[in-house]
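[Automated response] Your request has been received and processed.

Submitted sequence:
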Amino acid sequence: MAGVLGAMQKLRFVEEETWGSLPGSPSYIGLPISEDGYTLGLRGGYHFPAVKIGSYQRKYSAAVGRNLEGSLLVGVWPELAQYLFDFALGRDENGELPSYAFEFSSPGVEAKRHLGCKVDTLTISSAAASPGLQLAFDLIGKAEEEITDFSAPSIPAGVPFVFQHATFEIDGEGSEGVEAFSIEVANNLTRGPHGSDLSIAYLLAGLEVVTGTATVLYDRSTYNEHIRQASQGSFKAIFTHPAGGSPVPQIVIYLPQIVLTSTPEAGGPGDIIRQTLNFEAELPPAGDQIQVTIT
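Generated structure:
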C-alpha cells in the first residue's frame, strides 16, 4: 500500500468564460499551495423522509443536492498576483465576479476538476513573525469531475512577496510600527437551488464588505482620537519584491477610507504595549473601497 506525500500534490487553474464550463482551449497556470491549503470538495445533501413504518430506524433517503466548497491558501508571486486578486476583486460592470476552474492531482490516486469556483471570502494577511504575504480564499463552486489528462503545470521560478519588504501608511503617514495586518473581503455569494443534476443553478456575488485589523506599536494617541472624534482614516500596504529587478515588482493594497471600530491595547509588565486597530472600509469619493495595484 502506498500513500500520497503532501508535497507531491499539484494544482493548476484557468479562468472560465462561462460559469461552470471549462474553456475550449484552456491555458492552465500552476499554483503552489501553502501548507494543507486546498480543501475544496463535495458535500452531499440528502432528504430523509419522516415516516411511520413500524421501525425506529430510517429507511429512505434521496440525494437532493451537492455543494462544492472549501478553502485555498497561497502565497503571492509577481506572475500570479493579478490572477489571484482579480479572482476575489475583479467584478464586472454588473458587479459579478469571475469564475475559475481548478484541477488538483494526488499522484497515484486521482486527479479532479472543480468547475464554477468563485470567492466567497478573501483574507489578505502578513506578519513579521510569519512573513509570507498570504491569500486565504473561501470558495464555492458548481461541480466536481474526475479527470485522467492532468499534466504537471509550470510554477513560479522566483520567490514570493514577504512582510520584511513591505512598508505601511496609516492616515497617509508612514508607519514603522506595523507588526501584522489582515484584511477580509466578503463577497457574500448567493447559491441558487439544486437542480436534477444535484448542482446549484447559479452563484451570484452580493454586497462587498471589507474589514481588517492591524497590530501596531502603541506610541501615539492618534488612533484612539479617531474613535473619540468618529473620524475617517486610510490604510496602505506596499509590498516590494525581495528579488528586485527593473522595474521592481510591487503590490499596493490601499483602503482609502476606513473607520476604526475599536483600538484595544494589550501587554503585560514585561511587554512593549501593542495596539490592535480594528477597522471597516467605506466607498470613497473616487475609486473602490479596496484598491490593489500591481506593477
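Summary generated for your ticket: The radius of gyration is 22 Å. The mean pLDDT is 95.
If you did not submit this request, please reply to this message.
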